[in-house]
Amino acid sequence: MRVEQFSHIVFDMDGVLIDSNPFKISVAKRVMQSILPEAAMVFAEHFRKNFGQTRKAHFTWAYENVLARHGFTEEIVDTLIEQYGKLIAENYASCDVTAGTRSLLSQLHRPCYVLTGSDQHEARALLGGHQLNTQFVDILGGPVNKSDNLKNVIHTYGINPAESVFIGDALHDFEVASHFGLSFILVTQYMPFDNQALIEKVISSGGYVIDTLSDLLIDRLNK
């Protein structure tokens, strides 16, 4: 499989371009620990298994499934989102670029986009800090979800889903790509959970599985 066969390439960010998944899980756990310590592990596990969603979706799940039973009101969602954002801002920039990212982007002569569950302003700042932002036509993130953002990319830039690919590391990425008819490449190196079930699901649907973006480098494929 050669990634250059696709006319447009959509990347997830966390766990694909940036090695940030462990950091974000630790922050999510820390936020929940601050208000309901006994729920911290449950929330961290939910967060771990549902990467790709917006923080609004994550903390709404926490409220509906855990916090409401302990007397918290719905206003706690916005409070937690704010706390999470502040903690992310403290160390997000220290997360490294993943293996193969710079080399692959330098080889691609196709329009590339980023769709992330992270806050859009944070994502643009993070990629800008790593001098990667100029490699992308657009960088879209929260609070808008990935499905709506991909719909916007398709309509705004006139891409043909059948000729395009989404490169992600989570079930949510796969589901969004499948819904809109994009091919899918699963990056497994930085996935923070047992990924065998997802790997099998991607393969059975005709998708592709790689370790890191280094596996897509043209010089490696030619060896």
UniProtKB/TrEMBL annotation:
Catalytic function, reaction form: 2-phosphoglycolate + H2O = glycolate + phosphate
GO biological process, one term: DNA repair
GO CC annotation terms, alphabetical: cytosol
Pfam families in the record: HAD_2
Keyword terms, alphabetized: Hydrolase, Metal-binding
InterPro entries attached to this UniProt entry: HAD-like_hydrolase_sf, HAD-like_sf, HAD_2, HAD_sf, PGP-like_dom2
Pathway: Organic acid metabolism; glycolate biosynthesis; glycolate from 2-phosphoglycolate: step 1/1
Cleavable signal peptide: none
Annotated EC: 3.1.3.18
Entry's Gene Ontology molecular function annotations: metal ion binding; phosphoglycolate phosphatase activity
Family from the record: Belongs to the HAD-like hydrolase superfamily. CbbY/CbbZ/Gph/YieH family.
Protein name: phosphoglycolate phosphatase
UniProt organism field: Dickeya aquatica
